[in-house]
Amino acid sequence: MVETKLSSKKKMRNILFISFLIITCLVGRLGYIQLIKSEELSSLAYQQQTLNRNINPKRGTIYDATGKTALAVSSTVETVSVNPGNIAEENKEKVAKELSTLFELDYETVLKKVKKRSSIETIVKKVDKEKTDQLRIWMEQNNITTGINIDEDTKRYYPYNNFASQIIGFCGSDNQGLDGIEAKYDNELKGEKGSIEKHTDAKGGEIGHEGENYVPAIDGNNLVLTIDLTIQSIAEKYLEEACIDNKCTDGGNIIVMNPQNGDILAMATYPSYNLNEPYEPYTDELKSVWESMEQSEKTKQLQAVWRNKAIADTYEPGSVFKLITASSALEEGITDTDNEGEFNCNGGIEIAGVRIKCWRYYRPHGSESLRQALMNSCNPVFIGLGQKIGVQKYYSYLRKFGLLNPTGIDLPGEATSIFLAENKVGPVELATISFGQRFEITPIQLATAVSSIANGGMKVKPRVVKQIINSQTKEIKEIPVEKTERVISEETSQKVLSMMESVVSEGTGKNAKVAGYRIGGKTGTSEDGVNTNKYVTSFCGVAPIDNPQAVVLVTLYNPTGDGGHQGGGVAAPVGGQIFSEILPYLQVNQGNQEEIEVKNEVIVPEIIGKTVKEAEKILKENNLELVLNTSEEINKEEYIIKEQTPQSGIKVYEGNKIYAN
């Protein structure tokens, strides 16, 4: 009996102890939830009880240099989503069927979303309003007022398809910039998302009658580029022709830069791609094999065409680089432009026991001045100048010209040059650098360096965006021109420009001549790697010489056509074609800028095939003047015009001269 009482008391104590432990744990847990986890759980509860739908902002518009032509715009589209808990059970299959049929989706996938136990499911993104209007009509006809959401969205669109594709870049499905300007200025362009918020129960049903809380999206800012639609179109046209005619297996690029302020007026790369279809094959050849290609090979091909070779790829510049050597030698007072017989080319020069040939070793240039050496592109003369300048001083000029660092252009993916370290450069290495070989730079670095020569000797930073326009206030933020330091004196600049003019008028660059304009330039040919049997041919031109407004750099990779691979025969004509159309457009021979701006623009008419008398009449009607490039006496009623500069279709100002022969 006593043992039974003791056993009962022991059981009671155990029960009380266990109960105490349970209560203590519950109180502890409650305290933990209330005091420590309360903020987090309140947030989760809020998220569960509210239904947020994002509103995408309109991405900012990208304009060309005029500020009027839109190169990238955001059009209004719509996104369709469902709240499964707000769709009656008997309507779920009917809704899924309509959505899958209307938007051409898989029925089972849509039905799964419609029946899912979640607050919101996205059905389809970025569809045209024409489609969603059909959905609205169907919902009204079937008396379905809740559970299907149609929200405004935006879709990026590029009106000119392939135009300036490697500069502008493109966006992903979420409107995020993935390449080019779209990526570099994504923070300016993307704007801020808005939202639609309402309270719901656990199944997604509405709670209360306060309706939706609408927070509007803030549209992205607009950009005005330095890229001019007309000049870019001209560059792209002649680049494509050059690459096809000369069978350039690795494509090419052209840069047109204003040396006075660093504005990139054009930057063309061939081949290009359609910005509206960046993941699609871009040539007929690729289209024919695309379906059979591995995904890795597709990615490789796409990344290659997205690449902006003008800033991302390096190459040996060849003889164009002699402009840098000539500028450095003149600035140091080592030589002058017209010292008759100062140099002598006997077909080569020996440096540290190594004989380096002139490109015309089989018929040496003989006695030359610096001007004649540049006109002839004579390697031994520039090798000798490099030796006189010396490694340390030569590298100081490379730094000043900005050739040892990226230019800082406002585009993603810029590469930098590849030079030997200064302390590893011996006499032979300095010799090859002096005439543009055995190192690599980017086209934009070379165009920027030549711009320093063209603008009177000041280093200028290239830019592609010149204005940012606030979408809310319309306030315009100007991107400042950056002229940083003096590279060479104005006197040296004028001397080099004078010699460049001689290269075009009488030397290796004569194929870049344009009647009526003073153009300077330098041709270049280099090997694309060692023992590859591939070449890079180039031409860098400046015009007009008396007041440079454009630096044009043409770079063609591995031309294999009948025209060969020399810069003077392949690249210089392209430079001339470009100058023939952009110089009249830029009005370089007119008065001051104020006078230019008040003149009306006209489109150059076609006069090829017309008699001189007919051409004069046509041009007079358009307030243009005919200048005939012939010294012969002609019969205006019989003489037929065979060529004209600028070509038809180009916009120029009234009063401009049209040259013909």
Gist?
This protein has 661 residues and is of the alpha+beta class.
Main features:
661 residues; alpha+beta; Penicillin-binding protein 2a (Domain 2); Beta-lactamase; Trypsin Inhibitor V, Chain A; 3 domains; five-stranded antiparallel β-sheet; 26 strands
Number of domains: 3
> What would CATH call the homologous superfamily of the largest domain?
DD-peptidase/beta-lactamase superfamily
Query: What's the CATH first level of the largest domain?
Result: Alpha Beta
State the end-to-end distance. Answer: 136 Å
Please tell me what the overall shape is: globular
In percent terms, what proportion of residues is strand? Answer: 15-25%
| Major beta-sheet overview | 7 strands, mixed
The CATH topology assignment of the largest domain is: Beta-lactamase
Unreliable sequence segments: 46-50, 590-598
| Strands, total number | 26
- Global Rg: 35 Å
Content-based structural category: alpha+beta
Number of DSSP helices?
A: 23
Q: From the 3D coordinates, which CATH architecture of the largest domain would you assign? A: 3-Layer(aba) Sandwich
Mean pLDDT value: 88
